[in-house]
Design goal:
Elements: E1 2-4, E2 17-19, E3 25-27, H1 35-40, E4 48-50, H2 56-59, H3 62-69, E5 73-75, E6 85-86, E7 92-95, E8 98-104, E9 113-117, E10 122-126, H4 145-158, E11 165-168, H5 178-191
Helix pairs in contact: 4-5
Length: about 190
């Protein structure tokens, strides 16, 4: 089961996904709200924290979560403060009851990863793409529009057109033809 712990939070934060099942994992701890209490309301502990990328709105709560749950953190770049283990492009990681492949998708940030479980039809898109063809900012440090477009194109090659769920770093999750939203993001990023 996937729950967005940041739903309804009125602070500057990313979405925060608690993925429960065989392995209880937090995808992006978010920032500026009491995520520890939100986790405690639902589960007794965490098996891991996984990062889509290391922008402050996604990792501001990282220290509080690792202190409260004594848990290791996985991300693309182990030189980032707080990241214990590297996840390389194409490596797999278990979230909940499914194996997800990590897809390195720079352009918004150099250490950006998406996570895709083909059997479950689930994609964690981070800040690469959002609902209705929106896409991650490229005007921040490490942002690059051409690289972002290449990452979206690569994602389209790897995910199935029958994708069932896309959980984004901001805004609502997409459960109605999410593949179409990724395709639209590829088109919109070229036009902007």
């Amino acid at each position: 089961m996937i729950t967005n712990l940041a739903q309804g939070v009125q602070a500057f934060t990313s979405n925060v996904y608690l993925v429960t099942g065989e392995r209880t994992v937090l995808v992006d701890p978010g920032a500026n709200f009491d995520v520890v209490s939100a986790i405690h309301e639902r589960v007794d502990g965490l098996d891991a924290v996984v990062l889509t990328h290391s922008h402050r709105d996604h990792i501001g709560n990282l220290g509080a979560v690792t202190d409260a749950f004594d848990v290791d953190v996985w991300g693309y770049d182990p030189s980032v403060d707080g990241v214990d283990h590297a996840i390389g492009d194409g490596e797999t990681i278990e979230l909940g009851d499914h194996e997800y492949v990590a897809i390195h998708t720079p352009g918004h940030k150099d250490d950006h990863l998406c996570f895709y479980a083909a059997d479950a039809g689930v994609l964690f898109a981070g800040d690469l793409v959002f609902q209705n063809g929106s896409f991650g900012r490229t005007d921040l440090e490490e942002g690059d529009r051409e690289t972002l477009i290449e990452s979206i194109d690569r994602l389209l090659e790897l995910i199935d057109e029958e994708l069932a769920e896309m959980h984004t770093g901001h805004g609502p999750s997409v459960t109605q033809r999410p593949y179409d939203h990724v395709e639209l993001a590829a088109q919109m990023a070229r036009r902007a």
